[in-house]
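mind reviewing this stuff:

——
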Amino acid sequence: MNDLTVLLYFIMFAVVVGMTFAFMYSMMKSTLREVNSPRTKVHPEMEEVKTGDELLVFNLEKQDDDEDDDDGGNVLIVRR
C-alpha cells in the first residue's frame, strides 16, 4: 500500500467514527427527551377513576389467614 491509500483509509475511518458518535448523541438526546416528557395517555377504562379511589384487586397468590388487613386487598390510586 502506498501512503495515499493509508491516508485515505484513516480519513474514512475518522469520518465513520465521527458519524457514529453523532448518531449516538442524537439518539440519547431524543431518548432522554422522550423519558422526561409527561405521559398524558390514560387507559380508556381508567378515565373515570380519580386519585384516592379504591379498586378491587384479585391476587392469585396464597395469603395467610392470620393477617388482619383492613384494606381487604383494595388498592388506592395515586395519579401524578
